[in-house]
Design brief:
Blueprint lengths: L1 H7 L4 H8 L9 E6 L16 E6 L17 H12 L7 E3 H14 L6 E4 L7 E4 L14 H15 L2 E2 L1
Parallel strand pairs: 1-2, 1-6
Antiparallel strand pairs: 2-4, 3-5
Amino acid sequence: MAFTSELSSALAFGKIWLAATDKRISGVKHILFILDCCYSGRALFRLVGNKKVFILTATNAVKKAEAPVGASYTAFTGEFVSLLSHGINNGRETLALGEIYAHLKTRLVANNFPEPQAIYSPSIDTLDIGYNLIGQSVISLPNNQPEISTLMIFLHRLMKYQCVI
């Protein structure tokens, strides 16, 4: 019975892809998919169309996403939030998609978690999508959840770069 209810609440990535790449959506130059779920690598396929696309997944097509014992997030999301909150030592004030992917891959594999996967259109990996907060304090919301304000800042900056996420 649980299997049936899981399927009824699932959304096929193909439907998300069709909606995000619909030619009627004008003004969107970049499309970013970040998938943190079991078997998320199944969403990796040949890119088509005239929009620049970056698909980042927590695992490959045959692995389950994992979470550290007692953690609030999966390993992938936890590392992603940490990266956005604390930055990386890249010598730049900004973070590009390719740098984010490389950092997540290095950190997760080093900690024996599934290796994230990515596929992307040419040159979109160099797109700067956020500020590098290395050595800076994170602005926190009144409820003391700095990771939420970090994600809100990240999503706001994506809009500046005309990305759909």
